[in-house]
Amino acid sequence: MREIVSYFTTIPSSHRSLILVGGITLFWLIENAFPLFKFNYKKWHHAGINLFLTLTTIIINFILAFILLKTSTWTIAHNFGVLQWLPPMYLCPYTLIGLLLLDLIGAYLVHLVEHKIKFLWRFHLIHHTDTWVDTTSGNRHHPGESIIRFVFTTLGVIIVGAPIWMVFLYQTLSVVSTQFNHANISLPKKLDAFLSYFIVSPNMHKVHHHYRLPYTDSNYGNIFSIWDRIFGTFRYLPKEEIIYGIDTYMDTKENNKLKNLLKIPFQKQRLSEN
Questions:
Q1: Which of 2, 70, 92, 190 has the largest count of CB atoms under 10 Å?
Q2: Neighbours of 12 (CB within 10 A)
Q3: Per residue in 103-139, pLDDT tens?
């Protein structure tokens, strides 16, 4: 465990990029071999749009990374945050508590809020317009949403009092988890169900991408599934019944034009039939 702490304290940017690219490549290969759904789409064109939006997220996070560093350093220096107020404990439970809380605030809470506040939903909507969810869909975020999520991650660091190594570890796990639970892969049903009691499994997250309520407003988690189960937002839908997209934006041609996707938050919003 000490080796992990040491590594993530000074993890080079090149390694973080390699993890991102390596994860997408791995799940891309797996979903080609064992697809959950057989999509009739131009995979490289679809991936190009999603990877461009992933790149904008990387750039935004890189530019604002100093804020996370300063915030984490401040919490440690001023003994501020949940982790700083806990009694001394072994490193493993300390790390698990920190990761759980960072996931609660930086993933579950921001995701929930984006679905409940109309202004924030305008930006998150772009993620849900994807009617061909695969591993590249994980970071299909409008640049505006990337900033919103960064704000919540920073808030999480303050509240948790997370040291910088834990922040980098959390972000790494978050990226890999996103790639995994969006991947168009077919896991054995019992294995997927078993995993969903601990982490967000592919079938669990795919329910969130169903095109109609109440399923769209469920399964908000990213790494850990515990928060959906605790707060009553967990839902199940057989994979055979899942239809990807959002009911107000189901035109695949429209939703695969990058220029249009970037404009959606600033356009008049369409009313759902739900």
A1: 70
A2: 9
A3: 999 999 999 999 999 999 999 999 999 999 999 999 8
Q: Is the peptide bond before 214 cis (omega within 30 degrees of 0)?
A: yes
In degrees to the nearest 10, what's the CA dihedral of 98, 1, 172, 183? -100
Rounded CA-CA distance 96/43 in Å is 37
pLDDT one-digit tens code per residue, 85-101:
999 889 999 999 999 99
Taking the alpha carbons at both ends of the chain, their separation in whole angstroms is 49
Q: Helices 118-128 and 143-160 sit at what angle, rounded to 10 degrees? A: 110
Rounded distance between C-alpha atoms, residue 53 and residue 259, angstroms: 11
Location of structure tokens 């999603």 = 50
Q: How many CB atoms lie within 10 A of CB 242?
A: 18
Q: Which two tokens stand for residue 153?
A: 């991650």
Q: Which tokens in the block code for residue 222?
A: 């990213």
Query: Do 160 and 99 touch, CB atoms closer than 8 A?
Result: no
| Amino acid at residue number 173 | L
**Phi, psi angles (nearest 5°) of residue 273:** -80, -10
The predicted-structure confidence for 54-90, as pLDDT tens digits, reads as follows: 999 989 998 999 999 999 999 999 999 999 999 988 9
Nearest-angstrom CA–CA distance, 129 and 264? 10
Using CA atoms, how far apart are residues 43 and 222, in angstroms rounded to an integer?
A: 24
Identity at 198, one-letter amino acid code? F
Please give the biggest Cα pair distance in the chain. 56
**3-state SS assignment for residue 245:** coil
Per-residue pLDDT tens over the stretch 171-219: 999 999 999 999 999 888 899 999 999 999 999 999 999 999 899 999 9
Count the residues in the chain: 274
